[in-house]
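Notes to self, Two-component system response regulator YesN:
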Amino acid sequence: MIKVVVVEDQHPILRSIIKQIANFSSEVSVIGEATDGLSALERIQKLRPDIVFTDIRMPGIDGLELIENIKKTLPGTIFVIISGHDEFQYARQAMKLGVTEFMLKPIHQKTINEVLSKLAETIHYDRHERKKRILYDTLHVKTISESLTQTTLDYDDDSNAYSYVVMLICAGSYSNFPVDVSHPLCDFWSHIDLPAMISTHWSGYQDIWILDGQAINEQILIWGFKEKKQDNVDPKSLAESVMCILSSFLVPITISVSTKTGSRLADLKIEYQFSRAMLRKNLIFGASSIILSDKSKLAFSRENFTIESIIEPKKLSILLSKKNKALFLKEIEHMLEHMHKEAYKQSAIEKCLKVVAALCENMEINQHDRESDIELEIEELLSFSLNYKALFLALSFTFSRFFSNKSKKDVPGSIEIILDRVDKYLLDHYSENISIHDIAEMVNLNSSHLSREFKKYKGMSPMDFLTHTRIQKAKELILTKSDFKLMEIAGMVGYSNQFYFSKIFKIVTGLSPSEYRVTFTPSNSLPRD
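result:
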């Protein structure tokens, strides 16, 4: 509901405007009226309307003084000036107060319709974005504050009239690394107009919000609907429809959808947390699937396999001790083939591979390699591999180092020379389209090994180093190239997609490019958006 107050000192005009507003739409309601400035000030502060239609010249205080007073306490209030032909000088003053809508007397229905259509669109958009910010902050805070336990997302007349369904969408594997731009699908969602796809298929819902997930390859969908329609809402059907849309992109998609609805912010956060926990536990590696998030399933579900039924620890230990790399990797390959055939969950694969990793570390082979966290490396390989073939290639390189007779002391400085080369290449070619695989191929190293060594050397992965280099260059361009559009700056630092550039810029700096521009650039030399 959009709430309106009308202020006009001439009763016939006042009654006419109120009637015309009522004729526009039942979603717009006149909740108050006044014939003088002082009464209007009191009623607006009490009723807190979305829109105020006000005359300029009237008893008490005039319309301009009314606007100035209200803007101090209710800055979001939208004002529409009702003026005569001889009051243009007042209109100019109103524009300085932020007023953009003016109507000349006599007021016609067509004029009312045009103004309200425009303002209604603005108000609905602002409400949607405000709720989106509230939702994002709620879902991403670590703990639920006491104030959220009873707080609803709705704050209009129809408070508590809507319920919400939480849906989490993951492209590729589950990632334990929230912000890692070296992830192969880090920009997947930037190339998909998910809002347009969703709005095309589901225009009947009151609201649909699309938010960034905890990991860079995740998106959150929150569906809002009237509670009286709740019985007709099937979360599973919603998930199946979304899956149908995304199946054309040839990337494994997992949708974890809440089976329960909620109206309080605390409810939404809890359902999101369980949806992500179910995603972590039940995502099928290398395949698309739908997970119905249920607290009881998370609490009482058990794995339907034993480690011993998949791998033979004693056999692998013998192969390790004899340094028979070929047969060892063949065993790993057979294990992965079995897992692929049986559609194993990523969590189960991770558990098995960590057992293998422990066997490798327990063997007295290449003790110098123990300084690396191989369990963390296993998690990274699973997160970044899109299929079993890619996973096996990455694992082959990782496990191969346990069969090498060389230590770091045998090749002093060699890796440092390679890393210096990578460092220089990234600094010289940051504006180009670069992937971790391109860099690894250039220096003849496995990408995971390169990332691990580079992180020891620089404190961050090659792709993180590239990202920070690009954002630093972007910050310099924003401050020095005032005639460049932000889209042009994005291209100059290696981002073909402006929206993805903006997302990464905010992750690194805490500000969007536009916010950074406004904060650090003199107002007389702002670059164009």
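- The chain has 21 helices and ten strands.
- The longest strand covers residues 162-171.
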